[in-house]
Design a protein that fits this description.
The protein has helices spanning 10-21, 33-36, 40-46, 57-66, 101-108, 147-159, 173-188; strands at 2-6, 25-29, 50-53, 78-81, 113-116, 132-133, 136-137, 139-144, 163-166. By secondary structure, the protein is of the alpha/beta class. The structure holds NADP nicotinamide-adenine-dinucleotide phosphate. NADP nicotinamide-adenine-dinucleotide phosphate is lined by residues 7-12, 30-32, 54-57, 59, 62-63, 82-84, 118-119, 122-123.
Amino acid sequence: MRIGILGSGGLGTALAARWTAAGHDVLTSGRDPRRTGHGFADAAAHGTDALLLAVPDHAALAVLDAVGAGGGALAGRTVIDCTVPLVPGTLTLSTAGGPPMAARIAAAAPGAHVVKAFTFAPAAVWTGGPPVFDGDPLGVPLCGDDPGALATVGRLVADLGAAPVPGGGLERAALAEAASAFMIGLWAAGADARTVLPRADAEAARPTLGRR
Ligand SMILES: NC(=O)c1ccc[n+]([C@@H]2O[C@H](COP(=O)([O-])OP(=O)(O)OC[C@H]3O[C@@H](n4cnc5c(N)ncnc54)[C@H](OP(=O)(O)O)[C@@H]3O)[C@@H](O)[C@H]2O)c1
């Protein structure tokens, strides 16, 4: 696949390396093209199969604007939103009281098929070996509304050695963003966030939705 990466921080760089190793045609960009070799517009033009938006939440809408997303430049494209909107240095959502980042990104890129993904694990997970923990590949929840875009991102997740997990429509991205912030808080406090959930095959894990 042709993949464009908007952002050359830890996550964008790590995923770019893994997807390149998996045989994809990846172009990474940053705000200083002298450092990355490519500007955001280059990556947006390159990523005809998928575009990863990997900049801080406070920069995301400006970066989309810079590549013409507001004018429809990304219409029909798969845009992966990995932002965790935290106020820097805090565990507070910068979006509190307003729409989640995924909705803001979708509104800023009319016609684009936004998929929320990669918010639950730190970038370092993608720089080592296969992301397998306790014998299970890491699950990557995907929230999105377009079946084709979800299938594309699911393939990209599988190419990382991880497992795509259906996370519902894009309206559920608000929950993913808040849950990711909560998990980061657990990790920051020294807890193992993996231990707070029962295994899916445990009797105690049976969903009780709809039951009172
Ligand atoms: N790192 C993780 O473990 C992790 C995990 C899950 C999700 N995420 C999310 O993934 C996204 C990327 O995170 P990251 O840690 O890889 O990198 P980051 O430090 O959040 O962002 C790095 C990229 O954004 C650019 N950038 C920063 N401020 C900008 C601005 N005002 N305008 C334009 N570009 C700007 C940087 O350019 P310069 O290099 O020129 O500064 C760099 O290319 C974030 O939204 C984060 O919440 C990160």
